[in-house]
Design goal:
The protein is an alpha+beta fold. It has helices at about 1-10, 35-40, 45-55, 70-85, 85-100; strands spanning about 25, 30, 60, 65-70. The chain has a single domain (about 1-100), classed as Orthogonal Bundle (Multidrug-efflux Transporter Regulator, Chain: A, Domain 2), CATH 1.10.1660. Strands 1-3-4-2 form a four-stranded mixed beta sheet. GO terms for molecular function: DNA binding.
Length: about 100
């Protein structure tokens, strides 16, 4: 068991995959890394993690086992951000903040 844990942590962070979150394995064209998602949405990488935790982005693994998100959820988030009113964004922020407590 300790050797397996050591091997898991010895890989680069981007290749570790999810082990605390249930994530489906998807094809390469339906998968996007978290840094790519952050660039696509124009947000910080930490914000991608918060969006995953709050259920706004769907976690996924590539066929190689790398952690990321689904392309469809990133596109849906981008569309929501472009079309949501200030009120909707404020309510979402309030709900997400309450969920953290």
């Amino acid at each position: 068991m300790p050797d397996e844990r050591r091997r898991r942590w010895s890989r680069p962070r981007g290749e570790r995959g999810y082990f605390l979150i249930k994530a489906d394995r998807v094809e390469d064209d339906a998968w996007m890394s978290q840094p790519e998602a952050a660039r696509h949405l124009g947000i910080a990488l930490a914000r991608v993690g918060m969006l995953i935790a709050n259920g706004h982005l769907t976690p996924a693994e590539s066929p190689a086992g790398r952690a990321g998100v689904t392309t469809a959820s990133v596109e849906a988030e981008k569309t929501w951000r472009a079309n949501a009113s200030i009120r909707a964004k404020s309510l979402r922020f309030l709900k997400d903040t309450i969920n953290w407590f």
